């Protein structure tokens, strides 16, 4: 099997990359933390929406249909899941504190399929949407999103912020603004129902998160390479030491090993491959482990400075730890793969994820001390 990203998918990722290079930096990540001013984050997201990021998987005329006659130009690009890996990896590198996987891969396509009147504002980036498919689990960006889609009753339902009660939840990455969402018994717009439809949405969320993790791993490796080239000990760059070179080479190999798996998962979802669920879980496992390895190695190579929250590296490491546990952690996806191979019985990966998140697993994530202790 040979993978090649199409010119169209590459063009979208590059367009997003140009916006992020000019407008998104560590200051935007810090702005996403409680007490920060998120206006600059929202401005970057609206610019990204203008180049088509939010409508990547939305049919070209979907937003026009929701607005009736003379709606103006559509914002949907009509791409398939093959577009997610390169685009999400680019977004992951930036660390921009927005629910990118929840909007691009899950929420916007569901709004389009449901004919939701909120779709144009989501595609334009003027309304921030977040989604969780795990009942009663903390919702990423639930503390600041304008629109929130959560499981309720007979399926996944969309609510406005005014329709729900939110309870902020602490997270290892505070820029994700986790919150428990309490939806009313009635109301909400039904976006999806039935195992097949919900499983497809879940798979796209897993795929997008895996690609975000690849981007984070690449960014942490980039920061670390720059540091070990500049930092000198005994008259030479610390990057010239064999132990440092080998550790960073292992990270590079982990990223290169994971990227084809993520591309394969995107292809499988777009093609309707029978092994889509297994390929998607494999992608999440490998991308999560690559990002965790990158974070651990980067902090070790930076020395004590790597532990400080004032240093930019920590912002990307925290995001990697949080996303590695979200949309099913590596252990949960390995359990699913083993079960499909007949090596283990028990729950589906989504069932295991829902149980973990309901118990606060994704909310707490691995702490700074526990990650740092392994370095």
Could you characterize what this model shows?
The chain contains 15 helices and eight strands. It is of the alpha+beta class. It has helices spanning 7-23, 26-31, 39-50, 62-67, 84-94, 100-114, 119-123, 195-230, 242-271, 276-302, 312-325, 330-340, 349-358, 361-364, 368-373; strands spanning 129-131, 147-152, 155-160, 165-168, 179-182, 189-192, 232-233, 236-237. A four-stranded mixed sheet has the order 1-2-3-6, covered by helices on one side. A two-stranded antiparallel ribbon has the order 4-5. α1 (7-23) runs parallel beside α5, α8 runs parallel beside α10 and α9 (242-271) runs antiparallel to α10.
- The tally of strands reads 8
Cross-sheet strand order for the largest sheet:
1-2-3-6
Shape: globular
**Multimerization state:** single chain
Helix content: 55-70%
Unreliable stretches:
359-375
Residue-averaged pLDDT: 89
Structural class: alpha+beta
The total count of helices amounts to: 15
Report the order of strands and helices. HHHHHHHEEEEEEHEEHHHHHHH
Instruction: Report the span from N to C terminus.
Output: 37 Å
């Amino acid at each position: 099997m040979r993978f090649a990203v199409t010119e169209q998918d590459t063009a979208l990722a590059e367009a997003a990359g140009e916006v992020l290079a000019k407008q998104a930096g560590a200051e935007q990540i810090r702005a996403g933390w409680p007490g920060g001013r998120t206006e600059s984050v929202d401005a970057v997201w609206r610019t990204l929406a203008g180049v088509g990021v939010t409508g990547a998987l939305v049919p070209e005329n979907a937003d026009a249909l929701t607005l009736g006659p003379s709606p103006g130009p559509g914002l949907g690009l009509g791409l398939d899941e093959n577009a997610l890996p390169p685009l999400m990896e680019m977004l992951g590198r930036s660390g921009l504190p927005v629910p990118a996987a929840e909007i691009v891969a899950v929420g916007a396509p569901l709004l389009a399929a449901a004919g939701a009147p909120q779709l144009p504002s989501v595609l334009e980036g003027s309304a921030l949407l977040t989604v969780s498919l795990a009942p009663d689990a903390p919702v990423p960006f639930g503390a600041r999103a304008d629109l929130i889609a959560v499981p309720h009753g007979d399926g996944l339902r969309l609510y406005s912020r005014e329709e729900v009660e939110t309870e902020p939840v602490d997270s290892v990455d505070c820029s994700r603004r986790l919150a428990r969402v309490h939806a009313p018994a009635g109301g909400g717009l039904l976006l999806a129902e039935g195992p097949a439809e919900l499983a497809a949405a879940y798979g796209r969320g897993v795929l997008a998160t895996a690609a975000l993790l690849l981007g984070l791993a690449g960014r942490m490796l980039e920061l670390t390479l720059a540091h070990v080239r500049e930092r000198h000990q005994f008259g030479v760059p610390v990057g010239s030491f064999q132990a440092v070179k080998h550790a960073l080479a292992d990270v590079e190999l982990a990223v290169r090993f994971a990227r084809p798996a993520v591309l394969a998962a995107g292809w499988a979802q777009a093609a309707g491959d029978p092994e889509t669920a297994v390929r998607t879980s494999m992608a999440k496992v490998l991308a999560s482990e690559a990002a965790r390895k990158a974070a651990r190695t980067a902090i070790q190579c930076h020395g004590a400075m790597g532990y400080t929250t004032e240093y930019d590296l920590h912002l990307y490491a925290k995001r990697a730890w949080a996303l590695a546990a979200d949309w099913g952690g590596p252990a949960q996806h390995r359990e699913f793969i083993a079960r499909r191979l007949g090596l283990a019985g028990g729950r589906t990966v989504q069932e295991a994820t829902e149980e973990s998140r309901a118990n606060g697993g994704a909310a707490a994530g691995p702490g700074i001390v526990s990650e740092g202790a392994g370095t």
